[in-house]
Design goal:
Oligomer: heterodimer
Largest interface: A-B, 9 and 10 residues
Number of strands of chain B: 7
Number of helices of chain B: 11
Helix content of chain B: 40-55%
Shape of chain A: elongated
Largest sheet of chain B: 5 strands, parallel
Strand content of chain A: 5-15%
Number of strands of chain A: 12
Distance between the termini of chain B: 43 Å
Strand order of the largest sheet of chain A: 3-4-5-2-6
Helix content of chain A: 40-55%
Order of helices and strands of chain B: HHHEHHEHHEHEHEEHEH
Distance between the termini of chain A: 49 Å
Structural class of chain B: alpha/beta
Radius of gyration of chain B: 22 Å
Chain lengths: 681, 311
């Protein structure tokens, strides 16, 4: 039982308190996060990931405020704790200082660059001096070093203060006043036309100089790594990133960097150091958080389970002191939608034998086929009735749908329908009698989910069919925030709809509606502004519509279709670029296993639609089906201006899967050669 | 295209963001259960009523308090300052304006319409808080000119009386009230300005009160014209709405249940047809299907919004 509290309300790590960051921390690397983050390593690390992949949580976890929190818990003096940790994390959010100000207004780029570099030096200096203040207030052991540290820091400035500053506090105030002067100049340069600020430190003087002198003066800092943790690199301009890259290249021990950025946030690896380019492995290492989790589903499942449990505990949603993840899973209503359960039969109104919307559809297309001469082997109404009778399996609507699918597949190949229906009846009888191998069994295994979706949609029950925590974890695609948002939405609904004081069951309707809300949120929050954003949104919606058409067709080209393959290098440059952005924004997931094209023997890139979006179009979440699209079709999909071409393609795509014509015209024979706009099967 | 699920989603969001969580899921379900889907005539009553509910205008505590600030600014502070400036050669001297404004405000009194237990009077407390007014500017009806409890100093030092109200939907209440109170004030020879300022009013009611001529000034903060009447031909709720949402069907449903629940006024008091609620109450001008309690004819009825009736 759960209290009516939503433990998933906070979805961003920046909104969590120090204590919450600590208590919600899950060691994603299976007990050895330090081996991934390597906080003591001097090698700079880029921590990349999609929006909501956990970058900020990682970086804040290794920042000084969290270290201090842990020292208190361990009852260790900060200086001693830092010595034991071997590092100190100086965390800053790059988006916080409005770096857009450093350009234009009648001043040269060179001037702005110089000012930005100085500003950045001052900013990080204040962060490190502030950290020293915090250490001093918690550990008097630092006091004896204070005068000499202050004196040495002042010497790093080309124009030190008039009178010597003896305490960290005084030093901090002086640095803040220098930054204020600079802010004033920057804000008023449009009116004044000139700068009065004098630059007192060149690139790296303070950023690298201060850690060096601290390690020389403070005994406990002798072996310490000073880790500047710069988060949200995507929020600064390319030129400013080039400066950060220069710092990475020119870094001096004991300082180093941990840099957090979205996948699309790295605008350059170029530096101002002789225009050299930083390269992975030599100047920096990088990890992509969501890729790591996606590639190791076991690790992701385990991480997600722990994250859910921890949230429930930390935010006080549990009524019992300890619960297992299994008992949490049981809270979610999870109807058995398998072929041998009677849930689906009941959900479609328990139709009498040979009736129901699926039979209505079959009879309609058989009649139409007969009238148009497009139903092989059928010459009378009696034949139609015989076929309908042959595919009947009362009480087993999913298997009846499998029978009909088999019939449609044979129909597409111009097989005699009465003969085929007889064969299907035999295969179905064998299968229900326990024969679990062969083509029929494979078809059941592959298509059951699609057939359940069809049966329910025919009854007007257009709800997502993903229930239970395991499915939500799968759908989040390695993005912790996506999972948290899905659970927040589901919990909100459960609380809203609960009559009792406690929640002991989360209904399938609440789960379904929560997932629909999450899909909408995902479309909104992940999108890119501007024309490219529109193109990507259009493309994702088009791909989803094609997959939806396939899922609800008489004869789908693929079972559980959620992905496509394409010869990437044949795409236009624009499409390639949009495809890349779609991937960076997590709308599409590039699957690691490439496919060899049968004709050209070339490697095809494979992409899967993010499963979070699946409920919006009633799509499956299993990564089973992949359809091959020609490069020309993908170019159409990604070009919003080619709406007409896309609709033509969609029409032909749908027609090919629809009885009785399967893409042929009324007078043509069944079409067997794919047209330009048809997918390869 | 509206369907039950998308409307429920909208209502859920409204409930969280605007309706102060007055309509939790079970309340909505219980209310919906009172309607048929579909009815014997084939009308999806639940869908029609859900759509209507999704257009319900709710003003919570914060909104009412804000509107009271607007009311004071619009109908008291600004006119007083304008008068001060105009009487002093359009001065821009802030000290002069402030001094004279304070004096003018001190010669103003605020009252509620109706007796002390009614909503017009209950607003005065919030009105005073929100506009940082001294309590001496608020008086009882018996202190008005012509009333038994009035003292000479109570009336001679006042230039204007401002009567506040939450809603003036038909004008019946304020008409009765003004006939008794304002007429007496005039008969007693009061020359003070007498104003009536509800937060909300229908265009029809405002016109009616103004034409009666008892008040010197009649105006509301928000005015509801006929487009706010749920089933008026010009109803804003049914403008360019695609089927299956249908104004005539919805009216028939609201009328059918309203006739059983509240026979004299099936579509709200004197056919006002509003879909309006406040944090402090739901007016009887709102469709009874939203607020009316069960009766012997429909004992299982459950309203979606609560109304505290006036006896």
């Amino acid at each position: 039982m759960l209290k009516k509290i939503n433990p998933f309300n906070i979805t961003k790590a920046v909104d969590l308190s120090t204590e919450e960051i600590e208590s919600l921390w899950i060691d994603v690397a299976g007990g050895d996060a330090d081996a991934v983050f390597k906080p003591t390593s001097l090698m700079p690390l880029l921590i990349l990931g999609g929006k909501g992949s956990g970058k900020t949580h990682w970086m804040r976890y290794y920042s000084f405020p969290l270290q201090l929190f842990r020292f208190h818990s361990r009852e260790v003096r900060p200086l001693e704790g830092l010595r034991e940790d071997g590092y100190i994390g100086i965390y800053v959010l790059l988006g916080g200082l409005n770096f857009e100000r450093f350009r234009g207004r009648g001043q040269s780029d060179e001037l702005w660059r110089g000012l930005f570099e100085y500003y950045f030096e001052l900013w990080l200096t204040q962060e490190i001096v502030q950290t020293l203040c915090s250490i001093k207030s918690a550990d008097s052991g630092l006091t004896k070093y204070e005068p000499s540290v202050c004196a040495e820091i002042q010497k790093l400035f080309s124009d030190p203060p008039a009178s010597s500053l003896l305490t960290f506090k005084e030093l901090l105030e002086w640095c803040a006043s220098l930054q204020q002067e600079l802010d004033y100049d920057i804000n008023n340069v449009l009116y004044s036309g000139r700068f009065t600020t004098r630059i007192r430190a060149t690139r790296g003087t303070l950023i690298f100089g201060i850690p060096k002198l601290l390690s020389e003066i403070v005994e406990e800092f002798r072996e310490l790594t000073f880790s500047y943790q710069l988060d949200e690199l995507e929020n600064i301009t390319e030129g400013q990133q080039r400066y950060v890259q220069s710092l990475i290249r020119e870094r001096k021990a004991p300082a180093t960097f941990r840099i957090g950025s979205r996948l699309y946030g790295i605008k350059t690896h170029e530096t101002y150091s002789d225009d050299e380019i930083n390269r992975e492995g030599s100047e920096f290492k990088q990890i992509v958080l969501d890729h790591r989790l996606r590639q190791n589903s076991e690790q992701w499942d385990d991480f997600a389970d722990q994250m859910v449990l921890r949230r429930l505990q930390v935010f006080g949603a549990l009524t019992e002191r300890s619960v297992s993840i299994r008992s949490i899973e049981h809270i979610f209503e999870n109807p058995d939608l398998s072929r041998d359960s009677d849930v689906v039969f009941k959900m479609i109104g328990s139709p009498p034998p040979g009736t129901g919307r699926h039979f209505d559809r079959l009879l309609k297309v058989l009649k139409e086929g007969l009238a148009q001469g497009r139903a092989p082997g059928i010459s009378s109404q009696r034949d139609i009735e015989r076929i309908a009778k042959a595919v009947e399996l009362p009480g087993h609507p999913v298997l009846e749908k499998i029978n009909m699918l088999t019939l449609y597949q044979g129909w597409y190949r111009n097989h005699s329908l009465p003969k085929l229906a007889d064969q299907i009846a035999v295969q179905a009888a064998d299968f229900t009698a326990g024969k679990s191998k062969g083509a029929y069994a494979t078809r059941v295994q592959h298509y059951s989910s699609d057939m359940v979706a069809q049966l329910l949609r025919d009854e007007g029950k257009q709800i997502p069919l993903q229930f239970g925590l395991k499915n939500f974890i799968r759908m989040a695609e390695g993005l912790p925030r996506t999972l948290v948002v899905a659970l927040r939405n589901i919990w909100d609904l459960a609380i809203y709809n609960e009559r009792e004081e406690f929640i002991d069951r989360i209904s399938k309707e609440d789960q379904a509606n929560g997932l629909l809300d999450t899909a909408e949120w995902f479309m909104q929050t992940m999108r890119k502004p501007g024309a490219d954003g529109t193109a990507i949104r259009t493309a994702i919606e088009r791909i989803a519509r094609l997959f939806e058409t396939n899922r609800f067709a008489d004869k789908p080209v693929e079972c559980s279709l959620l992905g496509f393959a394409v010869l990437e290098r044949e795409l236009t440059d624009k499409t390639q670029s949009l495809l890349q952005v779609s991937e960076q924004r997590s709308f599409l997931i590039r699957t690691t296993r490439e496919e060899i094209d049968r004709n050209s023997q070339e490697r095809l890139a494979k992409f899967q639609l993010n499963a979070t979006l699946a409920p919006k179009w009633s799509l499956p979440i299993a990564r089973r089906g992949i359809v091959k699209f020609s490069p020309g079709v993908v170019d159409i999909i990604f070009d919003p201006a080619r709406a007409g071409d896309f609709e033509d393609f969609h029409k032909s795509w749908k027609a090919k899967m629809t009885a009785p014509f399967f893409g042929g015209t009324r007078k043509q024979e069944a079409q067997t050669t794919p047209s330009l706009f048809e997918p390869d099967e | 295209m509206y369907d039950v699920e998308s409307l429920k989603r909208k209502i859920r969001r409204l409930n969280k963001a605007v309706w102060e969580e007055r309509v939790p899921g079970p309340t909505l379900s219980d209310w919906l259960e009172c309607f048929q889907s579909p009815s014997r005539t084939g009308v999806d009553e639940q869908l029609q009523m859900l759509y209507l509910l999704s257009n319900f205008l709710y003003f919570g505590n914060l909104e009412i308090r804000h509107l009271l600030r607007v009311l004071f600014a619009e109908f008291c502070r600004v006119p007083l300052i304008e008068a001060v400036r105009s009487e002093n050669g359009d001065t821009v001297d802030v000290d002069v304006i402030d001094d004279l404004y304070q004096k003018a405000l001190a010669r103003t009194r605020f009252l509620g319409v109706g007796n002390p237990s009614e909503s017009g009077v209950h607003l005065l407390y919030y009105f005073r808080q929100e506009n940082l007014l001294p309590s001496c500017l608020f008086i009882n009806h018996i202190q008005l000119p012509g009333m038994e409890g009035a003292k000479p100093e109570d009336t001679s030092e006042v230039d204007r009386y401002i009567f506040l109200d939450d809603l003036c939907a038909t004008g019946d209440q304020v008409s009765d009230f003004s006939r008794l109170v304002v007429t007496k004030m005039r008969d007693a020879g009061s020359t003070a300005q007498v104003c009536y300022h509800p937060i909300f009013a229908t265009t029809r009611a405002l016109a009616r009160i103004a034409s009666a001529g008892r008040f010197d000034e009649v105006a509301s903060v928000a005015e509801f014209d006929d487009t706010f009447r749920c089933f008026a031909p010009e109803s804003r709720f049914y403008k360019n709405v695609p089927p299956p949402i249908d104004r005539a069907q919805a009216e028939a449903v609201a009328h059918r249940y309203g006739s059983i629940l509240c026979p004299p006024n099936p579509l709200g008091y004197k056919d006002t047809q509003l879909a309006l609620g406040f944090s402090h109450n739901t007016p009887d001008n709102t469709l009874p299907v939203f607020w009316e309690q069960p009766n012997t004819k429909i004992p299982t009825w459950k309203p979606v919004f609560h109304r505290y009736p006036k006896y």
